[in-house]
From TrEMBL:
UniProt region (Disordered), positions on chain: 1-22
Biased composition (Polar residues): 1-19
Domain RWP-RK positions: 7-91
Function: Putative transcription factor.
UniProt keywords, alphabetically: Coiled coil, DNA-binding, Nucleus, Transcription, Transcription regulation
Pfam families named among the record's database cross-references: RWP-RK (PF02042)
Protein name: RWP-RK domain-containing protein
Record organism: Miscanthus lutarioriparius
Molecular function terms from GO: DNA binding; DNA-binding transcription factor activity
PROSITE patterns found in the cross-reference section: RWP_RK
Taxonomic lineage: Eukaryota, Viridiplantae, Streptophyta, Embryophyta, Tracheophyta
Amino acid sequence: MPSSVIQQHSHATDPSSSISRRKKCTDDMVWFIHLPMRQAAKALGMSCATIQRTCRSNGIQRWPSRKIGALDRKILKLEKNMFLPRDRVKRTKMLDEWKRLSRERMDIYCNFMSLI
């Protein structure tokens, strides 16, 4: 058997390579948290159960895509209405709400990254 085949085979069974692959996948999860879990799992090459297990072991109880989607819809609605002719007070309140929702969305990403 050629030595390159033996090296490939031994590398494939090396537990440290699977650990680094798993770490890479968990680091990449943040890029997919806006997607439903099934789509994120498919994109990451993992099962939904693996994603759930990883999240729960790191203190994340729920996959955040629905919360992010809800915030995105609220932000989009505010952005559409913000530039309509309105009085200054109402526009200021809308801008404050937009900033709050944007911060909340960013906090979800930051918390996810800090826990994974």
